[in-house]
């Protein structure tokens, strides 16, 4: 996304194909909004400029047909949810009744009119009829209220059930996607469209409600129309007044400042002062910068720069929507809004003329004017709603299609067929790994991360991959784990192509510690147990893994021990707390909101040091890599000691050395030392290729780059 651009907050979830190119002047209109912002709006087709036509966006209906099989699948899925059809039936009945009420009310209003007419002509009122009609009207209003309430009562559990059903689907998709698929921006967009993160309702529910509402709106229209025509039959100029009111309300619905959200647009800024000002604002609000701001005595400079930028920009130093609002207010009203005003007055004028002509009918005409204008208004609103509903239904159908496509999304890394290992005993000596002329580029990257890499590690060996930052060490490990597949060349495991093995089997046979290890927003116990989900209940195994990873001591010192959450995933909600409230529910209160950081983000994570975090990640790897665990044959460690102190590093390597001969181990590291001296094989990488290969002694003897750096280091300790 372009710098400074806004995501479409609650805007149209467009399902359109194609591309929006701000530089395309034929398609895109550029407007400078104040000194700071540049707005790029898609030019509207000529048809869309005609009032009201924007609602009849035919393009939206084109894809409807393609979506139908997915809608059918949705219906079948909904049918499988417990008691869903029953609730749906009830909801349908209530909506049907609700849709008929306006017509019934209208009919009674017509009756009232007839009573007035008779009263004027005959100077008598049929009291009984009047009472019946009036009480029926009241009954209608009460029925409407009750039905509205019922509709809400039924829709809530229905929506909740449908939402829950699809949340499970969504979780499944999100959990099972592999790295290249998940990282693909198109897939990310597809997922966001299929399962919007900010929506409380599922698209399924919106569609169900939409379709039902569309039906009931159509019924409402037809019934209102038929009653209205009966009422108008006896009213002088009724049709004319109705038409005038109708056109007025249609025009007024086509508002002047058509919301940005219904269009395709983008906004950005290139204004250096505004960008700087925003950066300064962010820097002082972000706690991470506080130490440096204070220690570096930066505040005076920051303050004067901030003031300088504000002085230059003046009123324009504001976020896009604020400036846009101001800008919009300055636009001249549209033609539609200009003719709307006189049109609003016309029914009154017609009525007055008529009243002057026939003074005797004034009371009746007053009543009928009221009835006709209000009915015409309500009729036109219903009609507009119907158009809107049909439009959004086609969007919803397309989103349903997207959702099911996301549910069916297949992973980029194809699964193999052959079980691995053939027999469990074969793993007891480790796994052999061979790269044959492997080249690889990351999906979004143009340059090679590995070029023509070949090596062989035999079973039970300890191999260290050395090299500078970015030389390709981690990439080798990622390819062994089949997070990606090579672009060219072949990787062999136990002398067989890695692609032939079942992915789940292969990954079960290896344990990996990534350099950019993460912590799950779960308890420490779960964080370690996830290393071997099959034994997540085995507390002995978890504590053993924590001991091997060097984490058990500090975990036991934590107040909640293994149940401590490193990052609490659920936040507390509060507002208006008195200032003395420093903690709540046993956790520190976050006053981040005061600094304008937005939201009620809480400080609920336990702060551990980098080394402690790494020990937890190590423990997770040890869940499956202890000596007694025969199902693992390969251990991959990407910079396992980066954050460890020398003692912890020494202890770790000692433990790992014990595994030699029983498991194949591959380390990636920048460090020359104990580990490299003990390695069976060192691969020295530079700029995506292996430049040296051999044991410590062999490489020293060869006198290449490895020997040069080793000797440099040795001199440093002399
Ligand atoms: N996800 C990614 N997408 C695109 N390029 C990547 C990605 N990960 C790594 N690269 C690039 O691939 C090259 C090799 O990266 P790799 O992580 O394998 O290096 P490394 O030797 O492990 O570095 P370090 O010592 O810093 O960990 C680098 O140029 C890096 O910028």
In order across it, which strands form the biggest sheet? 9-12-13-6-14-15
The rough form would be described as elongated
* List of distinct ligands in this structure: adenosine-5'-triphosphate
Q: Uncertain regions: pLDDT < 50 for 5+ in a row?
A: 1-13, 593-604
Going by helix content, strand content and strand pairing, the class is alpha/beta
Radius of gyration: 36 Å
Number of strands: 15
Q: In this structure, how is the largest beta sheet organized?
A: 6 strands, mixed
Per DSSP, the total helix count is 25
Which band does the percent of strand residues land in?
A: 5-15%
> How far do the termini sit from each other?
53 Å
Share of helical residues? 40-55%
Tell me, rounded to a whole number, the average pLDDT.
82
GO molecular function: ABC-type oligopeptide transporter activity; ATP binding; ATP hydrolysis activity
Keywords: ATP-binding, Hydrolase, Membrane, Nucleotide-binding, Transmembrane, Transmembrane helix
Protein name: p-loop containing nucleoside triphosphate hydrolase protein
Organism: Lentinula edodes (Shiitake mushroom)
Could you walk me through the main structural features you see in this protein, from its secondary elements to its overall organization?
The protein is of the alpha/beta class. Among the domains are: 261 residues, no CATH class; 34 residues, no CATH class. 52% of the residues lie in helices and 11% in strands. It contains 25 helices and 15 strands. The strands form 4 sheets. A 6-stranded mixed β-sheet has the order 9-12-13-6-14-15, with helices on both faces. A 4-stranded antiparallel β-sheet has the order 5-4-7-8, with helices on one face. α3 packs across α15. The two termini are 53 Å apart.
């Amino acid at each position: 996304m372009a710098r400074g651009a806004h995501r479409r907050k609650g805007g149209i979830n467009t399902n359109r194909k194609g591309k929006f190119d701000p530089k395309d002047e034929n398609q895109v209109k550029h407007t400078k909004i104040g000194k700071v912002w540049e707005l790029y709006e898609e030019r509207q087709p000529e048809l869309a400029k005609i009032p009201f036509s924007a609602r009849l966006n035919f393009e939206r209906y084109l894809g409807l047909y393609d979506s139908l099989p997915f809608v059918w699948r949705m219906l079948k899925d909904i049918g499988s949810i417990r008691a869903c059809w029953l609730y749906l039936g009830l909801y349908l009945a209530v909506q049907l009744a609700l849709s008929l009420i306006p017509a019934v009310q209208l009919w009674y209003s017509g009756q009232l009119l007839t009573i007035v007419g008779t009263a004027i002509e005959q100077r008598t009122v049929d009291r009984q009829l009047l009472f019946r009609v009036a009480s029926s009207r009241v009954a209608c209003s009460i029925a409407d209220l009750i039905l509205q309430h019922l509709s809400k009562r039924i829709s809530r559990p229905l929506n909740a059930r449908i939402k829950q059903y699809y949340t499970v689907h969504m979780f499944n998709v999100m959990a099972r996607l592999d790295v290249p698929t998940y990282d693909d921006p198109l897939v990310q967009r597809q997922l966001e469209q299929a399962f919007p993160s900010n929506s409380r309702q599922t698209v399924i529910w919106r569609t169900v409600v939409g379709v039902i509402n569309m039906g009931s709106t159509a019924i409402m229209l037809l019934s209102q129309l038929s009653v209205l025509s009966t009422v108008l039959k006896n009213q002088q100029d009724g049709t004319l007044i109705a038409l005038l009111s109708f056109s007025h309300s249609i025009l007024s619905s086509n508002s002047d400042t058509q919301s940005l959200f219904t269009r395709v647009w983008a906004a950005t800024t290139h204004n250096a002062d505004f960008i700087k000002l925003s950066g300064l604002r962010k820097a002082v609000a972000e706690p991470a910068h506080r130490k440096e701001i204070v220690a570096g005595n930066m505040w005076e400079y920051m303050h004067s720069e901030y003031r300088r930028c504000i002085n230059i920009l003046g009123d324009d130093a504001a976020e896009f929507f604020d400036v846009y609002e101001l800008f919009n207010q300055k636009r001249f009203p549209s033609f539609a809004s200009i003719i709307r005003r006189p049109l609003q007055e016309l029914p009154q004028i017609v009525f007055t003329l008529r009243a002057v002509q026939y003074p005797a009918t004034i009371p009746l005409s007053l009543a009928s004017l009221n009835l006709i204008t209000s009915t015409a208004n309500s009729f036109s609103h219903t009609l507009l709603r119907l158009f809107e509903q049909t439009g959004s239904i086609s969007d919803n159908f397309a989103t349903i299609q997207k959702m099911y496509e996301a549910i069916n999304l297949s992973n980029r890394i194809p699964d193999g067929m052959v079980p691995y290992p053939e027999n469990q005993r074969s793993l007891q000596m480790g796994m052999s790994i061979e790269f044959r002329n492997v080249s690889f580029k990351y999906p979004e990257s143009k340059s090679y991360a590995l070029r023509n890499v070949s090596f062989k590690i035999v079973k039970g060996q300890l191999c260290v991959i050395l090299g500078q930052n970015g030389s390709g060490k981690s990439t080798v490990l990622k390819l062994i784990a089949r997070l990606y597949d090579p672009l060219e060349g072949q990787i062999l495991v136990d002398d067989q192509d890695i692609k032939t093995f079942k992915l789940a089997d292969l990954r079960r046979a290896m344990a990996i510690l990534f350099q950019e290890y993460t912590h799950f927003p779960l308890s420490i116990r779960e964080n370690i147990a996830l290393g071997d989900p099959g034994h997540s209940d085995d507390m002995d195994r978890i504590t053993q893994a924590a001991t091997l990873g060097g984490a058990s001591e500090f975990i036991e010192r934590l107040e909640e021990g293994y149940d401590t959450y490193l990052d609490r995933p659920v936040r507390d909600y509060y507002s208006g707390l008195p200032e003395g409230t420093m903690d709540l529910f046993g956790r520190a209160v976050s006053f981040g909101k005061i600094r304008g950081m937005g939201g009620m983000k809480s400080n609920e994570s336990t702060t551990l040091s980098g080394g402690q975090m790494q020990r937890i990640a190590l423990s997770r790897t040890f869940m499956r890599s202890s000596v007694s665990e025969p199902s693992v044959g390969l251990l991959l460690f990407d910079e396992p000691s980066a954050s460890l102190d020398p003692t912890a590093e020494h202890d770790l390597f000692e433990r790992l050395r014990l595994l030699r001969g029983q498991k194949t181990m591959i380390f990636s590291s920048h460090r020359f030392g104990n580990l490299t001296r003990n390695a069976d094989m060192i691969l020295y990488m530079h700029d995506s290729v292996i430049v040296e290969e051999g044991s410590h002694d062999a490489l020293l003897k060869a006198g290449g780059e490895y020997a040069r750096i080793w000797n440099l280091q040795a001199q440093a300790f002399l």
